[in-house]
C-alpha cells in the first residue's frame, strides 16, 4: 500500500512538472505569437482597385503622398505610374516617408549696377570770323562794328562821335564809361535794327549804322 502511494505521489509530481513545463511552453509560445503579431501589425496587404494610383494609396494609408517610392520599392514596381487591378501590394504603414531631395537653391546673380557713361562734351561750333574793312577780324557782328568804327577803343573820338561804337556825346548823356557805352549801344541797335547782325549788314552796305 505504501509502495502504491509512493508511486502515485511520484506520478503526481511527474505530471505536475510536465504540466508546468507545458504551461510555460504555452505561455512562451503565446508571448512569441503576440510579439510576432505586434511586429507585423503595421504591415498591410492592399488589393489594387480600378482607378487606384500609388499616390492615392499612399494618401489612403499615410494621409500624404510621400510614401509612393517606398510602396513601389517594397513591391518591386519599376514604373510608379503603372499598377494593375487585382495586384496585391504589401507595405509597412509605419514606414518613414520617402527622403525628398532638397531643391537646389538658385542664387540669382545680382545685376551689375548700370554705370553712367558721361556724354561726350559737345564740341562748340567754330565761330565764324568776320573781316572788317579796316583790316581787323572780329568774332561777332557787334565786335565787327566796334573794330570798324573805333578799332575797339572806348576813348576814340571823331568829331562829335565818341567811344567804341562812335555814338554822339548827347546820345551817351555825357557818361563815357565803358559800361554806359555798351548799354547805350545795345539799346540803340535793338531799337533801330533789332540785332547786331542786322546792324552789321546795314553797315556793310552803307559804311555806317
From TrEMBL:
Cleaved signal peptide residues: 1-41
Domain LysM: 44-91
Protein keywords: Signal
CDD domains cross-referenced by the UniProt entry: LysM
Identification of the protein by name: Aggregation promoting factor
Originating organism: Pseudolactococcus piscium
